[in-house]
Predict the structure.
Amino acid sequence: MLQHLFINNYAIIDELEIDFSSGMNIITGETGAGKSIIIGALNLILGERADTSALVNKEKKCIIEGSFSAEDNEAIQRFLKENDLDEQPVLSVRREITNAGKSRAFINDTPVTLTQLHELSEMLVDLHQQFDTLSLSDRQFQTNVLDALADTHSFLEKYRSAYISWRQSQKALQELLEQKHQFEKESDYNQFQYDELAALALQENELEQLETELKMLSNAEGIKSALVRAYGELAEGEQPITQQLKSLSQLLNSYSEYHQDLPELTERLRSAQIELSDIASELERVNDSILYDAERIEVINERLSAGYRLQKKHGVASTNELLEIQQQLEEKLQAVLNIGDQIAELEKQVANFEKEVYAIGEKISQARKKQLPAFEKKVKGMLTQVGMPNASLKVVLNTREPAQDGIDDIEFLFDANKSGQYKPINKVASGGELSRLMLCIKSLVAEKMDMPTLIFDEIDTGISGEAAKQVGIIMKQLAKNRQVICITHQPQIAGKADAHFFVYKENIGNKVVTNIRQLSTEERVTAIAQMLSGATPTAAAIQNAREMIEQ
């Protein structure tokens, strides 16, 4: 419920505040007084785009702030929690427009985006303006109306769960089918590439090791010559180095008792002689292991040539990268074998989910169809009540492919003149007819759709007398369980108010501004009487006005 509205520096409104009643709030005033400007300001805190031309005083910013009681609304409390906004008993929504044209929005003093503000506003206020036909012609709104009447909430929850699972499994199946098609296109080529790599049967780091071996074999003679010479110098020949070191060690040892440093030096010579003797043995072993093998060189060259060709083909530089490619190709070939089983399993899932979707969808459809005769009859009766005796509504349900809200294609068709020619609402109904039709529909589903504050901006255009009286009765009925705010020119509707606000212009200094005040009972009588008979109401008009208020 909108408890309080504060407007500062918006259009010709300098500053005004309104405290609304929880029931039926009526706003009246002369044409051009600024009634719709108030609705325009309210639109700003409902998430509409800001128009900087509305700032008459460019020296200060525009502020619109609304206070709503929403502590018992679970959807709003959930929204606040999900968006990390403070949960307070009174919800504060504020919009500021700077003189530079920058717009900011706040919920409970926390900055928010316009998207968040708009999302919240749909839970707070339902604003219906003259010629505003969007929601009435919208298929989703029409579907929501039938679902509210049919009470399909529990069915819809199960349906949407099954529908989401069905769509997800369809998507997964499609991806697998596309993957299979791609695999099949690539399968022969992948098999050829795999066979080529498998035939070479490379081992880890093999090509790098073969390169090292080839270098050794290609230089075998030089290596052996160097090894023989080194071995000879160390262990053989006329004066082997190891033998010389042994002799020198023995020579120094004979004098070791005469100088303190000689024992250590003698030991070091002995260690060097032992180490060189060991090196000589290793040189001999290595020399014996090296054999020039022309056939082995040819085998290595052929294998390296085959390996280098595959490296160049696949754009890699090592044996292990080739082995990795081989592994990937093997996995792709294996996937071709496995994907058929996966597809078969997914096809079963899709079929099962589809069966469930249609089964629940059919229950929802039957529940909706069951409501149609009574709904059309009630709308017909209410249209007659509001001055449209020849008008009627027809609801058409056709089966379609499953969607988020069921398997029904729902359309409201309208006939204003008993022509028998039912056509889409927005193509045949006038602005006034649309407004009254929307009022009738909203009044029928208001309880079940848990509609927020309902605001009607001059939807009574084109009616008077008894029809206007009936519109007032319907609004008054709506206001028993929810807040209604209505801008009207009809005395019959104004008479139904729980709180009557009067919008007027006044001269302050050198400018004209819009203001508003709540009327007392006697002021209401006078205002309604003026609506009936003019600026100077007759006694009969005053009496008539009093009767309207007392009814």
In short: The longest strand covers residues 392-403. The chain has 18 helices and 15 strands. Residues 61 and 98 are 4 Å apart (CA to CA).
